[in-house]
């Protein structure tokens, strides 16, 4: 459709992952004025689960909740109102998802045109790629043998073409999360492949709502200021032809539309904010403006776009043995020490049995004491805890070995520590261990198509790219990996004329993962506090704070448009995702941990910090 001055396109984000709340779709359809309802279901682990399902039942391999829950609840109403739907619910079987939806439409007496996007599945090319020497883009490891799934991250162009072909519902397989929003905007406003600034803004719009309620108060640093969690509103964006948009939510819902929270979400799970790489565009978010326009409205503008790369990122999953985790509750004096010794003893005993039976050792083993703030390392304040949960996690190439391990958990209840108990003494099970592998593939090697009414149509996607990595920007600061033990604690008192406060008093934060790397977005609560952050929350300081977790370097990128910085912590998550044995494998808690860091604030600024994390929302990032 041609661009229309004054036109507004309204899109509701109804899902952030496979398993999001069933209330989202009805809330948005019945409680908001929207043109599109979009769903994001896919994570790397999700693709592996779907692959396993399809291996047992060929008709499966998609997000069944999309059909059985979301569409069943709203299908007649979206047909009546003319709302279009875009979802990456297809997983590894988009056509199977479309077939299931067709049956539901027949059952409900609804007739809508459904399009399917195909071409992301490259699993059939794995032998040739292995022969060609493809390696992991992060670790350099060779392509594993037991690949479960392999899918390229497609962009918004196929979605836009499907809508132009008259589709009412578009089902994709693997695409970047923001593509389900960018595609409709390209279609509605007539944006072309070279409209990079607008594509960047449309991608940012998708990025803001791709995690559902995270844009409307979910995970907000000042969580105590977010009302009515149980009735939290899901996000609605009102998009204009130039790409700028306003974030809001359905009336009479809970949650919070705050500039600070939208800023947190913008920095969520990105690396370099000046080069956020997507299939259709490389985005520069450094000068984005996020402005509070009222109690329920936040306006976003200012993203810039660069030509895309000539490759797609491919996410593969592979089998790497089996995993089991056992837990026991330990109560009483010295509970932390008793729990650690219990976990160590379980491993020692099990390893002895393995040796007797000629079995190999665990490929990995990890003991955590939950309740002792184990993940905080030297910053823990709970070493004297008197009620903890001992968790021991192990990997092994042989499933039968984990059956031996499982039998040795419960005996701890009578053999070792006093105060050992638990809510149940059933033996833990084991499950296949699925890990991730990422690589790039030239765009020209993929054939992408849409299928509408059973008729395939090729999709023409620019394949030459044009983006090239620029030299490190002057505002990028890097700290190398830390050698040796963690640094000693800082001075006991603040310097003269300054007040020592936890970082949470002057900043908002949100953290997430990218493989084995974690990012932490840090936003000053007011512009005059940003110099304090730049001076004291340096890459070296952050690396030292997380010395017990982070093995690689730490980079800091400036995001001046919202008075923020974004940290990228390399080798921070014990492999990340399913590979990690930590309690927080996705780095979701790292932002919260960083907010405990002490900083010294000039006394004149400190006087304005009364209320700290509960101060008024929005002012921090208003332009």
TrEMBL record:
UniProt-listed InterPro entries: AtuA-like_ferredoxin_dom (IPR056362), AtuA_N (IPR010839)
Acyclic terpene utilisation N-terminal domain boundaries: 9-450
UniProt superkingdom: Bacteria
Pfam families: AtuA, AtuA_ferredoxin
Domain named AtuA-like ferredoxin-fold: residues: 501-599
The protein's name in its UniProt record: Terpene utilization protein AtuA
Organism of derivation: Quisquiliibacterium transsilvanicum
